[in-house]
Design brief:
The structure is a single chain. By secondary structure, the protein is of the alpha/beta class. About 45% of the residues lie in helices and about 15% in strands. The strands form two sheets. Strands 3-2-1-4-5-6-7 form a seven-stranded parallel beta sheet, sandwiched between helices. A six-stranded parallel beta sheet has the order 10-9-8-11-12-13, sandwiched between helices. Helix 4 packs parallel to helix 5 and helix 8 crosses helix 9.
Length: about 375
């Protein structure tokens, strides 16, 4: 089967690269020798890292190659991740929403089937974005979404033609390889209590949450002797925010900042060694959950809240603009002091999510490979 993957690939975002690795690994595990082409901003790097064919994803060049790949393809997989949204400005042909939908349109013109794969939908609030969704998203042949909210939201936008099934984020089917490069880079002695911290820039609440987070980390260092380690899931943006948090701390000298060049697999293996993860980044939280690590989210988006409800940790987490430093400290101390108890709750929830994530590929086979069996 010839498959083209369209997503936010080749731009250095650890979460999206984890999505790509999970899709490629699971396609290869379940399908008979799939022929995979990835649309990427860094096609040479993507081809080398994942052992796939790769074509430049933007419109500036490589358009003949994109058309050629789609004409040969049996299926375009759009996703996973939060591709279909207009948080960033959406104009006639610019912004993520029109880009991904125009790739769908191009695929249909080239005769390929289209599957929205393990996607989180929205927000789509602009008039132009809603028109684009109603026209082009209805061209998809089949849709899986990572939570019920996304399915309901998709239907509210008038996208009802393709069948839509709720599964889970494909990163729950992530297949890690043992690799301690990120951990080893810190030169630790092995008996530290580690807290992974995965911040990100955000429009309205950045300065406020940075001050609160800095205070909480100082208190955790004083009260529990932890070593906070900042994990930049999307450099340089997350690196810059991490440094801003450290500048507000009394005990910044008792923190560490991971480098920017680690792979999703290396970040995963580092987070697996921590006692607690505090994060805005969704896939840092998912890595923690997959490793049975208690996690506290600061939710800047419905996708983070939806995940935390499914992992069982929403009661210990907060909307980004609605938490006090005292409550965050209280919940962090509880998580550190009751790790075994929280793991007993997390493990069965994650097993459900892992099985739901694997269903994305099972459903792809049922929908698009029936005639080939």
């Amino acid at each position: 089967m010839k498959i083209v993957l369209s997503g936010f690939y080749g731009l250095g975002n650890t979460g999206d690269e984890a999505i790509l690795k999970a899709i490629v690994d699971n396609l290869r595990k379940e399908l008979d020798n799939p022929d995979i082409t990835v649309f990427s901003l860094s096609p040479e790097q993507t081809a080398k890292e994942y052992g796939v064919k790769s074509v430049y994803r933007g419109w500036r060049h490589g358009n003949k190659e994109k058309v050629k790949a789609l004409r040969k393809a049996d299926l375009l997989i759009s996703g996973g991740g939060g591709l279909l949204q207009d948080t960033y400005p959406t104009k006639f042909l610019f912004g993520p929403l029109p880009y991904y939908l125009l790739i769908v349109f191009l695929a249909k013109l080239c005769g390929a089937k289209v599957m929205f794969f393990s996607q989180g939908i929205g927000p789509v609030t602009s008039r132009w974005g809603k028109i684009l969704m109603k026209v082009f998203a209805n061209m998809a042949d089949f849709v899986t979404v990572r939570d019920q909210y996304s399915k309901d939201y998709l239907h509210s936008l008038g996208v009802k033609r393709p069948e839509t099934v709720v599964t889970a984020d494909i990163v729950f089917a992530f297949q890690p390889d043992e690799d301690n490069k990120a951990y080893a880079s810190l030169g630790l002695n092995g008996d530290e209590r580690l807290v992974a911290v995965a911040p990100r820039p955000w429009f309205d609440h950045e300065d406020e949450y940075i001050e609160k987070l800095a205070w909480v980390l100082d208190e955790l260092i004083e009260q529990r002797g932890v070593l906070p380690v900042f994990v930049p899931m999307e450099p340089p943006y997350d690196t810059n925010v991490s440094k801003k948090v450290m500048e507000k701390m009394k005990f910044a000298d008792k923190t560490r900042l991971l480098g920017e060049s680690f792979t999703p697999n290396e970040f995963y293996n580092f987070i697996a060694k921590t006692d607690l993860t505090i994060a805005l980044r969704l896939h840092a939280l998912i890595f923690a959950a997959l490793s049975d690590v208690p996690h506290i989210g600061l939710s800047y988006d419905r996708k983070v809240e939806s995940f935390l409800k499914r992992s069982g940790m929403w009661d210990r987490s907060f909307p980004l603009g609605e938490f006090t430093k005292e409550r965050l400290l209280e919940n962090a101390l509880y998580a550190l002091d009751h790790k075994d108890e929280l793991q007993e709750m997390i493990i069965p929830n994650v097993n459900v999510l892992r099985n739901e994530a694997k269903r994305n590929v099972d459903l792809l086979q049922e929908r698009f490979l029936k005639g080939e069996r």
